[in-house]
Amino acid sequence: MNSKEISVLDLKNITRSYTHGRGKSRIEHTVLHNLNMQIRAGEIFCLVGPNGAGKTTTVKIAGTLLAPDSGSVGVAGVDAVKDPRKAREHMALLLGGENGFYRNVSAYDNLQYFADLAGVPYVGREKSIQDALESVNLADKAQQRVQTFSRGMWQRLHIARALINHAQLVLLDEPTMGLDPESARHVRSLIQGMQAEGTAILMTTHEMSEVERLADTVAVIREGRIIARGTVDELATSQNIHHMSVYSCSSGNLGGLCGVDGAEDYDSDSLYALDGVQWYEAVKTHGLWTVTIAWSGFSASSAQASAEKTLSDYGLQLLGRREPSLEEVYLSILHNGVSNGVSR
Ligand SMILES: Nc1ncnc2c1ncn2[C@@H]1O[C@H](COP(=O)(O)OP(=O)(O)OP(=O)(O)O)[C@@H](O)[C@H]1O
């Protein structure tokens, strides 16, 4: 078997609940339901989903910080539930935020400590720490205490730690959150560098442009269940969006679709009644509405003309048509589910 085919991370039938309250008011809330996920060497797997969907919980379970209630976690062939310590030798975990290092200690000494923990051989250790610090542009900050680091520097130091122990699996929870565009770009290029070395990467993000750039596989999680999975192209195809069209409307009440002059108050049923409308979004800025409609195709060739005529009667002027972005595909998945069941 080709080494790229072997799963470095193998989550099988993972279920996890949290409990709230005590005694009679104790409530159990299941946040992951029979979750399955396999990630191969050299694969970037992006987990996306709304707030509270279960992304961080998944990363924590993969990273052995949380145990699943049921199911199995395999990391580089190690049973991570039975032997979390051994599994951790194969992985690096970046949970975001400023934790995971000794704040009062220099970047260099932190890396030396973690290299020691990871069993990096003494001979050559100094060089590999220096090399890792150079690759993440922190060589000149090596002797600085980590508590003085900015968020971007913390993120890069976490990646340096992953580089030193040549982790087979890297888990990244929102690795570019809060970073300026240049730092985010740098972190993305470091992620791609690790991928090129054959590292399996699980990352969560809310940045769809990041997913478009990095992901080999995308999974959309909602309420603890993976509802779609595939390449970016497969997900786009699964939504069967024929095209997107964008309209403007200067009428304050959206051509009468709004009862009151307010963005929250438009009558969604009228637009959904039109043949071919899969979903739409209406946004009002400086008194001007912009309406974006995802069309799923039309039942008859005359239907498009009829729908456009109705929109024009509402005062909506067509600005143009285009392909859907990944963000729109994602919104479509959350709205409709998956029409042709993309998964692998
Ligand atoms: N320690 C905890 N105790 C109780 N409930 C928790 C705990 N951690 C998470 N949850 C709940 O589990 C669910 C999933 O949370 P999780 O942090 O995994 O979501 P997420 O997809 O990472 O969200 P976000 O995009 O906001 O980071 C949420 O309903 C959350 O409130």
UniProtKB/TrEMBL annotation:
Pfam families: ABC_tran (PF00005)
Location(s), subcellular: Cell membrane
Residue ranges occupied by any ABC transporter domain in the UniProt entry: 9-248
InterPro entries per UniProt: AAA+_ATPase, ABC_transporter-like_ATP-bd, ABC_transporter_ATP-binding, P-loop_NTPase
GO function term, MF aspect, one: ATP binding
Record membrane topology: Peripheral membrane protein
Keyword vocabulary terms for this entry: Antibiotic resistance, ATP-binding, Nucleotide-binding, Transport
GO BP terms in the entry: response to antibiotic
UniProt keyword NAD, yes or no: no
Lineage: superkingdom: Bacteria
Record's GO cellular component terms: plasma membrane
Protein family membership: Belongs to the ABC transporter superfamily.
Protein name in UniProt: ABC transporter ATP-binding protein
Lineage: Bacteria, Bacillati, Actinomycetota, Actinomycetes, Bifidobacteriales
